[in-house]
Amino acid sequence: MAGPIGIFGGTFDPIHYGHLRPALELMQSLDLAEVRIMPCGQPPHRDPPIADAVTRLALVRAAIDDHPHLLADDREIRRAGPSYTVDTLLSLRGEFPDRSLCLILGMDAFIGITRWERWRELMQLAHIVVAHRPGWQAPMMGVLAELLRECGTGSSRDLHDYRAGRIYIQAVTQLEISSTAIREMMRDGRDPRFLTPDAVIEHMRETGCYADGPPRERGD
After folding, report:
1. Which of 9, 17, 44, 94 is the most buried (most CB within 10 A)?
2. 46: pLDDT confidence band, cut at 50, 70 and 90?
3. Rounded Cα–Cα distance for residues 145 and 140 (Å)
4. What is the average pLDDT across 2-28?
């Protein structure tokens, strides 16, 4: 059986090094066979992205074009309706019935996971890898604390030996980069170099995807 598949979702509006660096670190430290970077089609819990789905997918592809183990996956933007993670994992499980699947989340997303659609099914379909960053602490009480006691593991080997059902917390490098700030720079004609790959900047300039209109204020 081939190694685990990492699944890293987000709006990526646009993608930047704050997304790319943790994906690479987790791939290397957990010995993942690949990480699938998956732009969200219709986010169910936040405002719609500024750039359309096709553009955001093209930006992801531009960002990772030269890395063989970071892959762009378009299944969420091809699927109609809200992009629920449980549906994405069901699709992947149908495609890879015997592979280990690792859903990569930030600690902030993990803390809010009980608000997700059919969230209890996620552990039946995949492992959860929580990318831990400074300023966030794992839950000490409540449903998630109980889930961590039952399913948490300190061994990354479990991500290889089992198809699903474990929670693993891994520290990653914190890069304080904001997609909102990058959109503002593109709108104002400033240079976002060193915040996102040059290929992404070139594509944003060619398409003018963030040239007009005020950016929405939200986390990225």
Report:
1. 9
2. confident
3. 5
4. 97
Is a pLDDT exceeding 50 seen at residue 215? no
Alpha carbon distances (Å) from 167 to 23, 86, 105:
17, 16, 11
**CA distances from residue 216 to 47, 72, 185 in whole angstroms, order as listed:** 8, 25, 14
Q: Residue 133 has what pLDDT?
A: 75
Q: Residue 125: pLDDT band by 50, 70, 90 thresholds?
A: very high
- Architecture of the domain delimited by 5-207: 3-Layer(aba) Sandwich (3.40)
- 14: Cβ contacts below 8 Å, ≥ 6 apart: 51, 56, 59, 179, 182, 183, 196, 200, 204, 209, 210
| Residue 143 in tokens | 């449903």
Paired residues of 102 in beta bridges: 6, 127
**Residue 106 bridge partners (DSSP):** 131
